[in-house]
Amino acid sequence: MGMEEKLAAVSSLESRCERLEAKCSSLENMLVTTSQSTKEHIDRKFDSLYIHLDQKCSSLENRLDTKVDSVHVKVDKSLKFHEYNEMLIKNQKWEYSAAVRTEDELIDYGIPGDEADHLAEDAQDLKSMTTKMRRGEFSNERSGKQKSVRVEMYDYDTQDSDALNNMLLPHWKEFAAALKQFTPAINMLPDDCESIFMFGNVQLNHEAMLLMKEALIGKPFQKLDFTTNDDGDGAPEGICVDAILDIVESNKHLRKLEIDRNRIGRDHIEKLCSAVHTHALLELSLFNSFEPGIGDEMLTSLLSIDGLKLEKLDMSSNNITSAVGMLLSDFIATNPRMRELNISSNDLNDRDAALIANALRSNSTLRNLYLYGNSITEVGAECLRLVLCDESSLNAASDSNHNCNVPLTGNPIDRVNSHEQGQINRGRKIYSILSNRNETMSNVQHFGDIDVKILPNILEAVQKYATKVHEDEDHKVKPLSIVYETMRKWEKAFYL
Which of 23, 40, 115, 215 could, after both became Cys, cross-link 179 (CB 3.0–4.6 A)? Predict the structure, then answer.
């Protein structure tokens, strides 16, 4: 083979090698692409499968949680029913041990006629309530959604009241023992039924008071009501405030508390505020319970609680002064959860009314604010009126507070926001302005540069607001009269 042939052969081999390299490179690229595509496909499949399995697991977990919750509810109900039946079985052999004497028998013991009458009645009432509790029943059913144990008695205002209270002691022992074992009956109530214990105007000697305190400790009543139980002179008529606060502290189910017409001291404020915060109370009434100065301290402490959940607060007749006016207005301005605030019959004045009025501009939650019985004159009432119903213009009326009802005895603002729905109150105010202007045919004077194209909207609004008027407000003109005025007096309407 000659040199030229060898060179040609080498060149041919080199060419073939280059083609092979190109083919290998192409195959390598195809392999990489195929691998990447396969990986992405596998990843998508894996992600899809993972999501499917995760959703299925979540569904199974939810079903399991529901089943577990259902089982817990059934077990809880079964346990409560078992405890309730055990209570009833134990009480089958119970008998009322205290002697219930008639009025004549008590008179023979030397008790005056009126006192004997009331003492016999109180003893019979205690026996009746005790018997009902032993049967697993509440002594008072206020409605289908409320069941209560309610104790109210005659006030023995005589020099022999101690002796009379001592005569009732055996009955209090029976009552306290029945109340102490009454928890299963309370626990049997449906979730939407409120359990209440009410104790008002009751006189107790010290031994009976301790029995009642022990019986109420830890009892799961959702509402406690103690009225006129402690006058603060060291000789409590019923359950003293210290005992009441101990009872409150022990009750984790408590949501509503009334301690009215008791004498709550400065040393009770911290413990009472702690109970409000710890139990997340929704309603609190402390009507007529504080001496001058202490009422201010109590209200200040309450309104300073972080995360206050109270929806209803009654601090009426508690000598509250302007010292808390600024704090009170600042609290209202923060738009708290509170829907009802009663600070009537205190010592607030026109300056406080002006502060409160300004705070109401930014409040949309307060539904009822009771201020009557304070030193608020027409000046303070006018400040409140301008916030609740500013009739200077339709826009001003529209921007007023439409939610808060502020009763002031004998003042026109009493019914400004009387409806539960703010939009209805707003409509009434606007229609009142339109109606008053119609009497002098002056509505169109306030239209200004309003585009006549919105005339249909105006007429529709008139009809809409007319439906919001009080049924007894016959003095308001009919909507057709306002429509007629608009069409007749508004020149722009002629060119439509």
Answer: 215
Tokens standing for 18? 């280059």
pLDDT given at position 6: 67
Contacts 24+ apart (CB under 8 A), 451-456: 452/490, 452/492, 452/493, 452/495, 452/496, 455/486, 455/490, 455/492, 455/493, 455/496
Q: Are 116 and 106 in contact (CB under 8 A)?
A: yes
Which H or E run contains 479?
Answer: helix 479-489
Report the Cα 30 to chain-centroid distance in Å.
71
Of 208 and 28, the one with more pLDDT: 208
- pLDDT of 81 over the 60 cut: yes
pLDDT for res 144: 65
Would the pLDDT of 299 be above 60?
yes
Instruction: Give the Cβ contact number of residue 42 at 10 Å.
Output: 10
Cβ-based neighbours of 286, under 8 Å, separated by 6 or more? 259, 260, 264, 298, 314, 315, 318
| Token code pair at residue 455 | 């005339």
Nearest CA among 396, 387, 382, 395 for reference residue 364: 387
pTM of the model: 0.81
CB atoms within 10 A of CB 280: 12
229/260 Cα distance (integer angstroms): 9
Helix and strand numbers (H, E) in the chain are: 16, 9
Spatial contact of 389 and 416, defined as CB atoms under 8 Å apart: yes
Q: How confident is the model at residue 159 (pLDDT cuts 50, 70, 90)?
A: very low
| Positions of E strands within 410-496 | none
Closest to 465 (Cα-Cα) out of 421, 426, 422: 426
The predicted-structure confidence for 322-346, as pLDDT tens digits, reads as follows 999 999 999 999 999 999 999 999 9
Six-digit token pair at 288?
A: 């007529």
Pseudo-torsion of CA 84, 86, 90, 91, nearest 10°? 20
| Sole residue written with tokens 């101990």 | 246
Phi-psi region of 335 (alpha: psi -120 to 50; beta: other; left: phi over 0): left
Average of per-residue pLDDT values in the chain: 86
**pLDDT score for 484:** 82
Burial bucket for residue 322 (CB in 10 Å: 0-12, 13-18, 19+): middle
CA distance 391 to 393: 5
The DSSP call for residue 112 is: -
In degrees, rounded to 5, the angle at the alpha carbon of residue 107 between the alpha carbons of residues 101 and 110 is: 115
Mean pLDDT of 90-106: 92
